[in-house]
Amino acid sequence: MAKEITIYDIAKELSVSAATVSRALQDHRAINANTKRRVITKAEEMGYRSNQFASNLRRRKTNTLGVIVPRLNSHFVSTALAAMEKIASDAGYNIIISQSMESGAKEIMNAKTMFENRVDGLIVSLAYDTDSFEHFEKFAGKGIPVIFFDRVFDGGDIASIVIDNFRNACDITKHLAEQGCRRIMHITGNLKRNVYSERFNGYKQALAEAGLPWTNDLLLETDLSEKAGADAAEKIMAMPQKPDGIFVANDICAATCMHVLQQNGFLIPNDMAVAGFNNDPVSRIAEPNITTINYPAHQMGELAATYMINHLTGAASIHTTNKIILKSELLIRASSLRKK
Amino acid sequence: MAKEITIYDIAKELSVSAATVSRALQDHRAINANTKRRVITKAEEMGYRSNQFASNLRRRKTNTLGVIVPRLNSHFVSTALAAMEKIASDAGYNIIISQSMESGAKEIMNAKTMFENRVDGLIVSLAYDTDSFEHFEKFAGKGIPVIFFDRVFDGGDIASIVIDNFRNACDITKHLAEQGCRRIMHITGNLKRNVYSERFNGYKQALAEAGLPWTNDLLLETDLSEKAGADAAEKIMAMPQKPDGIFVANDICAATCMHVLQQNGFLIPNDMAVAGFNNDPVSRIAEPNITTINYPAHQMGELAATYMINHLTGAASIHTTNKIILKSELLIRASSLRKK
DNA sequence: CTGAAAGCGCTAACAG
DNA sequence: CTGTTAGCGCTTTCAG
Fold it and tell me: Between chain B's N and C termini, which has fewer beta carbons within 10 Å?
């Protein structure tokens, strides 16, 4: 393997010092334009590539953001990540990504790796069963900013970007009630997580406001996967007293659930009205189209990254704003709209 | 900000050398078990975190894989990435990800960053308009392995993981012909890319075999987005001579196209039979379910990462196997299945 | 505008 | 089993 060219090699060739080469390469203003040109040309010619490690080591800064997400392969997550990557990359930051696979234990390991790789900042959406903040405290201790998005810790004054899950769930449930639903079921994820507990609370609140009773059998806790939707449909069909409205905490699960119900002869929305959450592409393709909440995944990713980078460059501190609530809205579609 | 603890600090506290600390921390076998314990305990106690840069600099190795994809937010890509991340992470590798946004120019910049960050290996799926190999040649020059997946360069002896796009397209088209379609249209992406050109060729081959003529107006080149599907439907409805079968190169585009056609009164599959590609969740949720090709995204990601890591650890060379073709298969569903 | 020199924190020969 | 030593390649005062 060919020897790596260093700034010293370039310096020697040009009979200047390594310091000059280093400065020229960074376009330092105190370097003669002509010298710069010579250095850059020579570097190219010799096949030089800068060594980020040496630079990072020396500068004590990595220009890298760490991102930990529950899983990569969800429409919401990958959309948010795509936006973050774009912002970060435009600002000269790299992104290292890892997935907790919904496991708190894995998340702790991920955080450790990010810590040792000295990310300049960390952006996180929590795993299903994370219940300790400890593994993120280390970052705070070293002055490394941590921002949470979507799945965040309840309360506290931790920087986070969310939507108003409570209100959205309230709106959806209220809408179902207005469509004449009297037994509205809620299918959701792990209630430990803010996003699901808040939606559950919003749902209950709306039921109460509509004067509808809530009973245990109206709640189904699942992993919200495609398969969970089908399973949920089976359970619903086995219920002695069936629901006439179903509010599912994500679209993909809502779609499969609805699909199985339809295959078994139930009419949507008349026998059962269905609503999801996220505005995933499937909600627009399922027939009937699924009523949902427009979740600004792209904006959320964009904002998390922008916010982080502004903090890192000193343009604005993360500590002055603790919680950002993005606008999200109810999209009423055919799956819940009953003819009057 | 608190001072960073280094192995020297630990060494001093314990009255041993830094080398011993370094070794103990790596669980080097030539270190007394007792010493190890003391070092590890002390490190924890002092809040030590290893500095990967210093280590990388010294070892000339980063334990990082670079991945460049066209975009993160596609079901195929995020599924493949999720699988890669898992394999890499289990093997102690980090992953840094960047997206070319379908632009060859951006891809070149991404490659440069990966190069300077000294990734140990690079995994790539090409942008729409990449047509030069140059930016990857640098890697080969330094002995850094590069593996392509899905969107690869045509021919050559470059390590790549693909499916048999030609045959799959052939199968799909043949199936449509067997269902009685006589004017089969093909909606695809940029024909510069292997995946689309091969599908196009397979499609034409099957037409020829079925004795069906092909004319220019049966091909529609788009960006295969959700919106492109709707636009395509409009174009189809404006065609003087409409197709009776449509083979779309991805499911999401097929789904929206089909949806708009249905809204305008066309019956699927009887007026027009529809087929997609990828086995995206939407293909299973659209009504009727969409005939498609089961694309092993997960396996592909898994294989790319495994293959890369085996090469890096010396377990198997990338140079002995050039091209891996994964099994993929036609899934016939209601969108193309006509009653006899 | 340029150079000399020191050191970021870690690892790996080599020598005991 | 442990210590000594010499860098990895770069940046950045400080001094011209």
Answer: C
What are the tens digits of pLDDT across the range A90-146? 998 999 999 999 999 999 999 999 998 889 999 999 999 998 999 999 898 888 999
A217 and A114, same domain (yes or no): no
C-alpha distance from A109 to closest chain B C-alpha (Å): 10
Element (H, E) at A293: strand A292-294
Round to whole Å and give the CA distance between A265 and B95: 47
Flag whether B52 is in a domain. Answer: no
Q: State both tokens at B27.
A: 């669980």
B46 touches strand C (CB under 7 A): no
Residue A108 to residue A68: CA distance in whole angstroms: 10
d(CA A94, CA A88): 6
| Residues in CB range of A244: below 8 A, 6 or more apart | A180, A181, A182, A183, A184, A271, A272, A273
Contact A228, A222 (CB under 8 A): yes
B49 touches chain A (CB under 8 A): yes
Whether residue A52 is contained in a domain is answered as no
What pTM value is reported for the model? 0.91
Q: Is residue B232 part of a domain?
A: yes
Same domain, A279 and A177: yes
**Structural domain of B186:** 165-295+330-336
Domain count along chain B = 3
Lookup: tokens for B59? 């070892």
- Residue B94, chain A, CB below 8 Å: the answer is yes
